Amino acid sequence: MNRGPSRRTFLGAAGAAVTAGLAVGCESRSGKPHGAPAPDAPPPATGGHQAGVAEPRDAQPNLLAVVADIDDTAAVGPLLAELGQTILALTAGVDPRLLGLAPGDLTVTIGIGPRIVRLSDPSLPGAADLPPFSREEVADRERGGDLLVQVCASDPLLPSVAAAALLDRAGDRVRERWRQSGRRASGVALGEGRTAPRNLLGFVDGIVGPHTPAEQERDLWLSAPPPVAGGTIVVLRRMELDLRRFAGLSIQDQNAVFGRHRDTGVPLSGGSAAAGPNLGAKTPDGRYLVPADAHARRAHSSVVGVGLMLRRSYSVDEPAPGLLFISFQNDLRTFTATLTHMEHSDALLPFTRTTASATFLVLPGFDRRRQLGSTLFPGG
Ligand code: HEM
User: How confident is the model at residue 10 (pLDDT cuts 50, 70, 90)?
Assistant: First the structure.
């Protein structure tokens, strides 16, 4: 692997400054020692993968995503290591910047943008920017970025408070670029013990994806090369929705846009909500039950020829009603090929306008011994 001089410029002298505070990793979220688990069984902040991707399985109702740029003079390794320490302190409930709030099911997920990945090694997954797509009206400030701080919690105050603590720790090494908060409705039961929330169009969103451990190993987590193993690639797209025009459609036409029934999430080809659509099923007069331009067909992994993406999108109300589309996948092409296929004819796209867009490498999991980002920027 190429570990050229460009990376070294980011390995500053601050490597020593990162051990204090890590002892909080020995404690549970409630701040009590292990053996006294918190009643709501929070997702672990540490381990092979970061929290906030596959765990908790049902994403928390409140999200704040903050995207920032990293100053050219800042040493990336120490910055990431310090953010990791702060995450451990926040999720353990021992950081005074929580202002007395209980961390509960708080998760913080850190990603680095393509420019920063390329500083480590331009051949790594995550080093490529998203290409432009149609129906985008993205201001420069809301395209891309070097650092993603994704904070999720059941407590609606926690994302802002935790993000403020992390930005405080980063100090003037980062400059905020854009931020987006979002909310998820409570989940609709899909069977097989799974749930997914409705979006602002009234449809159950997040049904199909890599939900089993085997699917997650295959399509969600990066397994190689070693610096990124345990990480994944995230895509964030804020998409405004034309709610008025969509609401003007008959329920049959709304169902046809998605290829699923709005009330239950069941595919128009039948079966259960949790099952994927039967794309070959036809009416007696030979028409597809899931129309040719239905979103569930155009975005279907077998039609596009890609792996599954884990969609954990949030509804947004500011700056306009819509969806903060969030997908996790181990190959950026899973997203780009799907959207390219949708652009040719997807009945949903004419109701959307994309106004923010970015991709990040979600760093591998971390703990007291393996600091956040240390596999890409050793010596942090
Ligand atoms: C505002 C925009 C969007 C909305 C409201 C939306 C909503 C939905 C809904 C309701 C479903 C059906 C249920 C489910 O499987 O979750 C679905 C499926 C899906 N969507 Fe979207 N989506 C949007 C944009 C996108 C984009 C940009 C992509 C990726 C490029 C995408 C990829 C997928 C995939 C892969 C499926 C599963 C298809 C299948 O296998 O059945 N969606 N989406």
Answer: very low
Residue among 175, 158, 156, 149 at smallest CA distance from 82? 149
Q: Give the nearest ligand 1 atom to 309 CA.
A: 35
- Residues with Cβ within 8 Å of 21's Cβ and at least 6 positions away in sequence, in order, are 85, 86, 88, 89
What does the pLDDT read at residue 193?
83
Q: What is the pLDDT of residues 303-320, one digit of tens each?
A: 999 999 999 999 999 999
Q: What's the CA-to-centroid distance between 295 and ligand 1, angstroms?
A: 6
Output 186 or 27, whichever has higher pLDDT: 186
Q: List the beta strands (DSSP E) in the chain.
A: 62-70, 107-112, 147-153, 174-183, 188-191, 194-196, 232-241, 310-311, 314-316, 322-329, 352-362
> Tens digit of pLDDT for each residue in 76-104?
999 999 999 999 999 999 999 999 999 99
CB atoms within 10 A of CB 208: 20
Burial class for 356, CB neighbours closer than 10 Å (0-12, 13-18, 19+): buried
Is residue 342 predicted with pLDDT exceeding 90?
Answer: yes
Q: Alpha-carbon distance 208 to 196, whole Å?
A: 10
Choose one of 208, 249, 295, 349 to mutate for the ligand 1 pocket test, by most ligand atoms within 8 angstroms of C-beta.
295
> Could you give the domains of the chain?
59-362 (3.30.70.1030)
Between the alpha carbon of residue 330 and those of residues 26, 132, 334, 360, 361, the distances in Å are 30, 20, 8, 11, 9
The SS3 of residue 236 is strand
Candidate of 309, 310, 325 to mutate for ligand 1, largest count of ligand atoms within 8 Å of Cβ: 325
H or E segment and range at residue 370: none
Is the entire prediction scored with pTM above 0.70?
A: yes
User: Quick one: which of 362, 339, 349, 307 has its CA closest to 132?
Assistant: 339
Measure the CA–CA gap between 360 and 79, rounded to whole angstroms: 16
Taking residue 172's Cβ as centre, other Cβ atoms within 10 Å add up to: 8
CA distance to 78, 100, 118, 379, per residue, from 5 (Å): 17, 44, 12, 15
Q: Where are the beta strands (DSSP E) in 105-231?
A: 107-112, 147-153, 174-183, 188-191, 194-196
**175: helix, coil or strand?**
strand
